[in-house]
Each structure stands twice: as structure tokens, then as C-alpha cells.
Amino acid sequence: MTSTGRVTLPIEVGMDEQIIELIQRLGADAVRNSDGTDLPAIAADLAVKIYATYFPARGDNEWAQTHTNESTHFYLMSPRVTSLRGGDLTIDIMDGYYEQQVSPDTDVDVRRMWQVHDRTTNTEVPVEQWDHEGRLVTVHNTIPGHVYTVNFFARQLWDSTQMYNYITNDWHLDPARQKQAPYDVRGTETWEYMKHTMNSWCEENPEIDVVRFTTFFYHFTLVFNTLGKEKFVDWFGYSASVSVAGLDAFEEEYGYRLTAEDFIDQGYYNNPFRSPSPRFKDWMDFQHRFVTSRAKELVDITHAHGKEAMMFLGDNWIGMEPYGEHFPEVGLDAVVGSVGSAATCRMISDIPGVKYTEGRFLPYFFPDVFNNEGDPIGEANQSWLNARRAIVRYPLDRMGYGGYLSLAVQFPAFVDRVEEICAEFRQIHEESQGTRPQNAPFTVGILNAWGKVRSWQTNMVAHALWYKQIYSYVGVIESLAGLPFDVKFYSFNDLRDGVPEEVGVLLNAGPAGTAFSGDVAWDDPELAATIRTWVAEGGAFIGIGEPSAYPKGGAFMQLSDVMGVEREVGLTLNTDKYDEPQGEHFITTDLSEEFYDGEGAGDVYSIAPDTQVLRMKDGSVQLATHEYGRGRAVYMSGLPYSTENSRLLHRALFWVTGREHDFSRFWYCENPELEVAYYPNVRKFLVYNNSEETQSSVVHGLGREWPVHLSPVGFLWMDLTD
């Protein structure tokens, strides 16, 4: 076994001896700086690759301040203000926003770029009916009792991520720290400046091996409130990708002009839970082509200087869309991203069109964790437990950490644990010899309005952050990220010509009214008919939460006949329900008496006599199966991630495809706290403990059994060639 490689270590000035020691201990073969740290002079003498963080769209405040006409912008909405008496209504559009981050741009054609809406009637107020002066907009002839808002074009004064880092790390205590203003790549002068600066930087830094673009041009939507705290965040948001030049170019190409409301979207800002409008999808495609073409030019410059180009999947990543059509054309060598869960790990590792992928593990070496009350070891263990399931299935090529190394070394036990994690990560690659473990012989297709472009990103708000309303659905992809299945993501449009041949199971999960459940997509009768026919002819469908929800034709869930269940929304209370759990099933073999469905859809009842109800709570069906023609369906009211729920989904996927008798042939552990991966090309299997407690189990595979006993977070390789 080799003891080095595949690890990137964050370093900083003033730690030369410790850096050398840690490179040896962790087996690091690359070092990097972070936002707010500089590479020490010793970096060039370390005999490892050197990554340097590079910000194309920020970092030169002199340029930003002398080219304010080429600043990046937001489209923002004022607070909702009610006109109580009618007549004139004055709205302070900056009420609730942080003045150091954004400022109304009144240098543009305000009457063309701004809008006022009567939100009660959901109509635009004519431009002749409102005036503005700075941050104040006065709406005339308002209607008593109606609510009004202003959509305004705002200049971005402070980069969102730099602001977050500035506040989190108390950079205000350092007078040398500048608040960095971003600038827009669509500006003619700014674009030429970006290319010139890229060339100069490469020439001036010959020791740098890898340029770590963080990221390219447009930041995800992150806006702060008057207290300097996050007001709203959408990791997928395009609200900060707007510009006058961009809107003009869009109009010239597409033949119609986008308005402020196309971005404001009634205040929802086209977040990923909203069903994407055709106009917004046009903007995404337009920006994807533009951003990737400009990024390619910077990557070409990087390559011309003999350096590798790496993209950080975060910060200014909007428009790059790593699962978009044009991403491979950029020619990037690598993508690196923060690993907050198994799903986000797969989001990075599955990206096509790059030579290698790298995960930045948690915790970040920031003072919010590395303090006397923090638990850096606990966070490191949880990060590794989450990531390892995904790495086993579709491995990252590299791993690393970020932040202030000077903080991490103050916690020696944490460094010891990181050393163990790095060694285990390398061992996965070495034992598997670069091969993938065995998967089930069918593909799981995730069906929603976004499809491939949001691969491994479904039901998320801000990367891997927990929200009460989503954990019951994020658990679906979190489970799948570490289960033995090929997973692909399909939009409803992808089914226009039928269900793709490789799909063994279609899975639709999400709350009603969202892009993930489908909402208005189910108004298309051909969609439901296509899936019904496919299942009846031997296909398989799993619905979770409120799948296919769209009230129409006397049904709330359009595929209720397929699933054998319906949800009560108060319109069928006069229909009697007589549901009772009907015994155990192959799917529930490893399930405790109660099924944990998180928030659960609630008020679900069976509508077919052959629906087998497996679990109920408070009179509502939580888990059920249904035969439909020659096919099968499974319904779950929610599926938060847990080892038990992951096993439940694992079994459900085999049963719904009619392959329950093959379950043990494709390897499993009797104890759901343990998982196993079999590598047929090297005749080895890996069993790993997903808990922080000692676990025992029996591993099943190839018609054989192996008893195992694993320590907390432990693992075991078994060589079957012996």
C-alpha cells in the first residue's frame, strides 16, 4: 500500500515546520491557500502541487470603483407594502436590505429596468403611475387594501462570499482587509481586463501548478438583511446574473425582452422549488452558453501557461451548470466542491467532462467550529460517514480541507482523526484498483421538472443545509447516493417519447406545487398516460410525499390509480376510508415497527382493494404497495435519511422491479447500520459501519455468508481470492 497522494492541505504563512510535518502525516501531495490566506514562500520548495485560489470577478477594488458602470447586479423586490387609504403610497425599496452589499442603480433607464406591481391583482402598475427618487418609489392612485411591491435593479457593492467570510472571521478587526466589490464579465472593458489580468497573473506566478477558479463570474443568490445576516439564499439562484448588456443581448437573440418580473417571480426568484417557466429556462440556457464560452477562454489562457484549471463548485458558479450541455466544452481539468452529504459528494464526483474531481471535507477550519465549544472531531466523523457511502459507489479522485491551518493544529486529536480519514480514502482507491462496485442491473430514474441539469441537487435550498420542509425528500437522494444503483435524472419533457429503455424504476418525490413533484407538468394528460401504460406493461413506479400532485379530473395525485393511494385535501371527506395495516412484506423486513417518514404527507388513504398498506400513523397511510397490470408501485409518505430508511428504499427498489429474489445476490448486510460493496473485477468486498457505535452483522453475497464485527465508523476489506 502507498501512503501518500490524493490529499490537498490548506496552508498559510508562518507555519513552515508544521506544514512539512502535516504533509508527511496526511500524505498530502498538494497544498492550497484559501479566501483570506496567502501561500507561504516555502510552498515552492515542498515538492507537491500548489493550488492557488483565483477570483476572476473580484479582488481589484480599484478596478471595481473606477468601473461602476460594469458592476454586477441583482434584481430585487421591495417589501410588500399595503395601501390602507389609497392615493399616493411611498415605498422604501431598500427596507430590509444591507446597504453595504446592494444599492439601487438609478443610472440605468429606470422605467425600463424597474417595475411596480399590484400584488393583490397580480398586475403591473403602468410606468406613468409611479415616480422614484433614490431609494423611494411613490405609487400614485393606489387602491385601498391592495398590496404593492417594486422590482428594482441593484448594483452589488460587496461580493456575497467575501462578505460572509469577512463577517464569520471578524476580518473587520484587520484594517488591511478590504471589502471586495465584484465586476461583470459582460462589461467590454472588464472582460478585456479579466483576460489581461489572467495572463499577467500566470506569468507572475510560475510556481503555481493549479489555478483554482473560485468560481467564474456570477454568484448564486445570497442577499443580506439590515443586520448583516443572510436574508435569503438560493444556491441555484440566477438573480445576481443580470445586466443591461445581458438583457439586450438576450432580446437580440431570442426576439423578446425579459422583464424584472421574470427574475423576481412574485418574490420567489425562480428558486428550484418553482416549476421553471419557459422564459427563465431560456435565460438559463443563454447564460450557460455565455458563461461557459468566457470561462473556456480563461481556461485556455491557464493551459497556455502550463497550468491546470480547477473550478470550485460554489460561490460564482451560476451559469456554469456542471451537468449542462456545454460544460465539457470549457476544458477544465478538475472540479472541487464542498462535501456536506452523500448527495453533494455525488454531485461533484459524477460531473462529466473533467479529468478528476476533488471534495473539500468538513469542517472548514474556521473559528465557528474550532473553538472551546466546538466539536471538530464530531463534524469530521459525520462528514466522512456521509461522504464515504458516496465515495464507495462513485469515488472522488481527491479529497482535502480548507480554511486556517493555524486553527486546526490547535486541536491535535482532530489532526489525528484527519490522518486516519486520509489513509482510508486512499485505501478505497488502492483496494478497488480504480474499479466500480457491482450495481443492480437496472437504472433508477428520478423524475422532476429539472432533470439532468439538477443531478443530485433535488429538493435542496442551499447546498446540504437542513430545512424542516425538505428533509423528508432530500433523504431520497441521500439514500440513493450510497446505494448500489445507477441513478439518472429526467425531466418531464424527457418522457415525451416514452420512458427511456434503461430505466427500471421511475421515482417522483416532493411536496405538491413544486418542481420536484411536478405541479403543472401533470396537467399534460399524455404524461400520466405514458407512465400508466409503461407501469401496466411491466414498469415500476415509486412515489414519495405528494407525487404527481395536481388537482384535476377528481384526483389530487394524477397517478393515484398506479400507486393505489390518494391524499385527502378536504374535498373527499364524505368518502369512507377503512385502511388497516396488512402485515409484513419483503420491503419491511429490516424496518422497525414504526416507519419514520419525517413530516410525512399526511391524510393519505387507499383507493384500490388490492393496495397493501404496510404502515399507518394517525389514520394515514405511510407505506403501501400496489400491483398495476404487469407492473408494481410503492408509495411512501416521506423518506428522511437514516440507515433504516435507506435499507427500506433499497428493498423497495428490488421489490417494485420484481427482483426481490435477487436481493441477496447483489450483496447486503443483515444489520442496516452496515453497508457492503462488492468489487467483482478484483474479487473483494468492503463492509463499512455507518454509525458511531460498534456493530455486528452477517454479510450476504454470492450465495455465501460472512460474519463481521466493526468498530464505530469502522470498515473491513475482504479478499475473496485468498
TrEMBL record:
One of its GO terms (biological process) is carbohydrate metabolic process. Residues 444-660 form the Lacto-N-biose phosphorylase central domain. Residues 667-717 form the Lacto-N-biose phosphorylase C-terminal domain. InterPro entries: Class_I_gatase-like (IPR029062), Glyco_hydro_b (IPR013780), Ig-like_fold (IPR013783), Lact_bio_phlase-like_N (IPR035080), Lacto-N-biose_phosphorylase (IPR012711), LBP_C (IPR035356), LBP_M (IPR035363). It holds the Pfam family LBP_C. Signal peptide: none annotated. Residues 5-438 form the Lacto-N-biose phosphorylase-like N-terminal TIM barrel domain. GO terms for molecular function: 1,4-alpha-oligoglucan phosphorylase activity. This is 1,3-beta-galactosyl-N-acetylhexosamine phosphorylase. It comes from Boudabousia marimammalium.
